[in-house]
């Protein structure tokens, strides 16, 4: 597992991350609880798929709150998109989903994080496992894969509570017309009539069915609530995947 | 910069804890988990803790030997760079003062190394005089694997990535050598009160 360290050492030198203003140019409702904010950020250094940014909100009396959000757009896009899930009693997410509108500005800095990243040039196969809004950084990879036009075989295993909770559903359907990308949904709480996808939490049988065998050495990225991330990462290691190829990200509090 | 987020009010901190929460942090009751990869599984029968590098003679403990060292229960606030802080967390473990007193050295830095390949760098000044521990208990229970069990570093006055999970040893070094997150753009020192999150902060 020396890899973990080697990968860290090849990372590029770092410039100071400064706060800057992004302007909301588009708001896309994704599900009843999530929205995508498309931002125009004049000095955005190109990010790598999987990276995140920090948002800082300032009230009139100077009070501030900061949170992290994954970039969902690929580096090829001229705008930077984040997708935010509204947490009922949250401090920041309801502001982003309910209050912020086209033309508003948002203070942010990034891109941040250089480990949970994938570039098409790294090749594949690519195995992505998401729970809920954990799909956001993985979507950046999927969109980048499509934009880069590389024929890297990729699979997404995506767990949502209900059909309505699936983020980016239509875009995923479209992208999956490319035979190189396979999307597997599982719905853990309820399923619409005639649902042909999976209907349980991601377990070892499901992973064995969907994942490439360890001999093919897929690059693996897992993002979502802690319980899902822990279970999937452990199971994949048990199935023989090299822990150095299993990269994880968790989103925070009870989720994380 | 005096940018105001239109319409943002925010949740004010509760009275009494404001002096305990560094800038840009919020208090959580949960215990979030953060790590870059799978949780390593090391059986206690093969677990050791080692101090090596620039020391006269390296020193190593087995799990049994380690558990027999004098330990203490510590109550501390912890601060994660992903913005959460958790107050009054209760840990049990061995002070680094106890561990470092077992080796002779004349250098100023160390790199903590872990199962899974994770590393982090620290000035020795920051881990002596009651400032750091190797802990194996949390809230009166054995430390859970996802939180770094069987044992992790605890350096509560720095951002929590410095409190390396699954720690297996300390390599004493002459120079400050960036560890895992430090090489990926995170700050070399990581003082939450000065908001040293990323390189250049
Ligand atoms: C690297 C990184 C990337 C992230 N990317 C995204 C992203 O792409 N999209 C996104 O929506 N979020 C993302 N998050 C999470 C985000 O940073 C915030 O934590 C989240 O929006 C909640 O903030 P809040 O202020 O609304 O809630 P808070 O005020 O912080 O919390 C409100 C309440 O909700 C609870 N809570 C907090 N988080 C959750 C949760 N996940 N599930 C259930 N309850 C919870 C808290 O315990 C608290 O009781 C990311 C986090 C990290 C660290």
Automatic annotation (TrEMBL), chain A:
Name used for this protein in its record: Flavodoxin reductases (Ferredoxin-NADPH reductases) family 1
Span of domain FAD-binding FR-type: 17-118
SUPFAM superfamilies reported in the protein's UniProt record: Ferredoxin reductase-like, C-terminal NADP-linked domain, Riboflavin synthase domain-like
Pfam families from the UniProt entry: FAD_binding_6, NAD_binding_1
Lineage, opening ranks: Bacteria, Thermotogati, Deinococcota, Deinococci, Trueperales
InterPro entries xrefs: Cbr1-like_FAD-bd_dom, FAD-bd_FR_type, Flavoprot_Pyr_Nucl_cyt_Rdtase, FNR_nucleotide-bd, MRET, OxRdtase_FAD/NAD-bd, Riboflavin_synthase-like_b-brl
GO molecular function, one term: oxidoreductase activity
UniProtKB/TrEMBL annotation, chain B:
One Pfam family in the UniProt entry: Oxidored_molyb
Region (Disordered) residue spans: 1-21
Domain of life: Bacteria
Residue stretches making up the Oxidoreductase molybdopterin-binding domain: 37-181
Coiled coil spans: none
Protein name: Oxidoreductase molybdopterin-binding domain-containing protein
Species per Swiss-Prot/TrEMBL record: uncultured Truepera sp
